[in-house]
Fold:
Amino acid sequence: MLEIRRQALRGALCDEDEGIRQAAAEALERLEAVQSLDDILQILKSGNRGLQVRAIFALEKVQSARVYAPLLAALKVADADIRCAAIQVLGEKKHAKALEYLVRHLKDPNPAVRVHAACALGNFTDRRLVPYLVAELDCNDEEFVVSVLEALGRIGAAEAEGAVLSFIQDDRLRVRLAAIKTLGCLRIDDPAGPSA
Structure:
């Protein structure tokens, strides 16, 4: 069955339309990633740091429930780069079960991990995340505050307005800019509507 799918996609690589060729190449890449899932997972377990990070990013293309356990396990390793990579991939996959793990990493000891966690949470557009993100805005880390504000903007929930407004006059230019952009993204008609 997979061979039939692969042959169909390879045939589409020769289509006269560039969009079809591009779509076929992307689909073929995802199919090959699924087929090499066991190899990717083995690298993740025993490869060197660079290979492990690449393996994590390869999991982003794999549409299988088998990727979540290794990604969640990667959140627990000591290496911050591996945690960052896993957070990015989980944020792109937007699997609801990953939310609680990503929220925990807003308190990670590594600043880069916290920034990636805030960015990843913004991908979920779930208004229940607003209180967790707003609680992190009292941090002195400018990069983290900007990431939290941007995540709040992508979520777009009106209940973030008060917290965002408090940063319009912030001394830090990037923070002010992020706050202004975020205000423009917040919905105005959702005071108690359902979670997005």
